[in-house]
Amino acid sequence: MKVTIIGIGLIGGSIAISLKENGFADHIIGVDRSQENLDKAVRRRLIDEDLSFEKGVAAADVIIISTPVDTLIDLVPKVLDLIKPEQTVLDVGSTKAPILKAIENHPNRKSFVATHPMAGTEFSGPEAAIPNLFENKCTVICDGEGSSKSAVITVKELYESMNMSIIRMNSVDHDVHAAYVSHISHLSSFALALTVLEKEKNEKAIFQLASGGFSSTVRLAKSSAAMWTPIFSQNRDNVLDVLDEHINSLAKFRTLLIKKDFNKISELIEEANRIRKILK
Amino acid sequence: MKVTIIGIGLIGGSIAISLKENGFADHIIGVDRSQENLDKAVRRRLIDEDLSFEKGVAAADVIIISTPVDTLIDLVPKVLDLIKPEQTVLDVGSTKAPILKAIENHPNRKSFVATHPMAGTEFSGPEAAIPNLFENKCTVICDGEGSSKSAVITVKELYESMNMSIIRMNSVDHDVHAAYVSHISHLSSFALALTVLEKEKNEKAIFQLASGGFSSTVRLAKSSAAMWTPIFSQNRDNVLDVLDEHINSLAKFRTLLIKKDFNKISELIEEANRIRKILK
Q1: Where in chain B is the domain with CATH 1.10.3660.10?
Q2: d(CA B178, CA A210)
Q3: ipTM of the complex
Q4: Residue ranges matching CATH 3.40.50.720 in chain B
Q5: I want to staple B3 with a disulfide (CB 3.0 to 4.6 A). Which of A138, A279, B25, B89 is the partner?
Q6: Which residue in the set A194, A220, A258 is minimally distant from B268, CB to CB?
Q7: What is the pLDDT along chain A (280 residues), one digit of tens a residue?
């Protein structure tokens, strides 16, 4: 199978490693507007060759678009304009309703499958690509009923080759849930980093105190603005709802601290502990 | 050296493993109000024997008190009542001003060293004790000028044997900084867990979507109420200040989302990214 990956960063590059290793792809073509990224990807052997957008799209059985979600809105229709019926196109963006809306009336809509492989790290670029990023994680396929059966089968085989499980969901529900289990975590980390950086501006020594707990809650604050600003933009309404709820949760603790109601604080912590059952 | 550890949980148990492995202690005595914990600690060979409070205090060169911070306030003076001049006592609690206030006029104050080894996990109890928890981390010694030189030297040797670096700081500053680099992270995780649990109450399937990013920001929400409620209680004023600033940071993002000012959101994310320089 020939696979073209448009956008060779953390996600595109990691998919490239997996598909080559597991044999799903025998030839991987990279397309990226940054020649520097393409050169890095060739040097790291993430891709077999780099081609122009048009040639890359023409040469592949499967085209994976792994750019920031704002760029997706432009690129997916352009790719669909160019393809032949036997080709399959998928995106891997973190928001799903906007891209599906953008191509709902495209004549080649059926060749497109909207997906969200739920994995990532706080790093970006082809140098951040790693093997097994997706191993045993989950991919969401959204609004699959708008895609042809054969396109969905190809995409399922692609993700199953990477040892991922597949969930089907409508795109509107996906975007609500993504706001809860992913987007708010990032927003919270960015805000926490800002809070602490602001305070500790003139007191560098203090970061020696930052232990594992701090690192883990602000890890995501290293994530790139180029990826996350478009996600917050496209999923603005859901993110705002969840952010309001999160501020309310914090305000609950605030009120209890003011009242010195530590019994109730203890109860809230025990409630929060129920997250144990959910996280491994 | 004979060491008695009062409170054989995650921290006490992990210290026991380190001090035995590196040879600082040739005999470790466990004291705990839970006989079940002591039995577990013996079975796991964290301690050589368990003794009653009085016998445990009498038998050791060094006495480490590693209980939740509310219990510390009672226990440290009781231990100081019992010791002879050649014995050294230290605590390892996450707040420092309250315990130092509690013993400031104790006749044996000079035998006590207030410390905070900055390491931990979200788990608790002797079963959570692990080797190398403290390796290459940092310990704070607070208000060391109130301790005798020989007590400080013993405590420094103890932590250095565990490959920890040592910072000296006054207890009031410590508690402010701990609010920023540790306590607010926990509060934020508890609140985030509550936000998501509330929403996803009836939609269990959705947690399959929770990826690495989510797990890492809410990991601390598994932390125990028995440990954290007393920390929030003792460090209430500092935690409230930092919580207000954190809610303000989130409110900044909220306002920008409402205004759809994504350029400014992108700038804020880039500002938050500066945390990269601080975290390894």
Answers
A1: 174-278
A2: 8
A3: 0.90
A4: 2-169
A5: B25
A6: A194
A7: 999 999 999 999 999 999 999 999 999 999 999 999 999 999 999 999 999 999 999 999 999 999 999 999 999 999 999 999 999 999 999 999 999 999 999 999 999 999 999 999 989 999 999 999 999 999 999 999 999 999 999 999 999 999 999 999 999 999 999 999 899 999 999 999 999 888 776 556 566 777 667 888 888 999 999 999 999 999 999 999 999 999 999 999 999 999 999 999 999 999 999 988 777 6
The Cα–Cα gap between B1 and B25 comes to 5
Instruction: For residue A181, give every residue at least 6 positions away whose Cβ sits within 8 Å of its Cβ, in sequence order, or none.
Output: B196, B206, B207, B209, B210, B211, B214
User: Which residues of chain A does B261 touch, with a Cβ-Cβ cutoff of 8 Å?
Assistant: none
Q: Which residues of A touch B181 (CB under 8 A)?
A: 196, 206-207, 209-211, 214
Residue B116 CA to residue B92 CA, distance in Å, equals 5
DSSP A44-93: TTS-SEE--HHHHHHH-SEEEE-S-HHHHHHHHHHHHHH--TT-EEEE--
Would you call A210 an interface residue with chain B, using a CB distance cutoff of 8 Å?
Answer: yes
| CATH 3.40.50.720 domain residues, chain A | 2-170
Minimal C-alpha gap between B153 and chain A (Å): 21
B22 touches chain A (CB under 8 A): no
- Selected from 3.40.50.1000, 1.10.3660.10, 3.40.1170.60, 3.40.50.360, the CATH number assigned to the domain covering A174-278 reads 1.10.3660.10
Please tell me which of the candidates A198, A211, A251 has its beta carbon nearest to residue B247. A251
Size of interface A-B (CB pairs under 8 A): 307
pLDDT in tens, A145-187: 999 999 999 999 999 999 999 999 999 999 999 999 899 999 9
Query: With an 8 Å Cβ cutoff, are A279 and B137 in contact?
Result: no
CATH code assigned to B2-169: 3.40.50.720
- Class (C level, CATH) for A2-170: alpha beta
A166 interfacial to chain B (CB closer than 8 Å): no
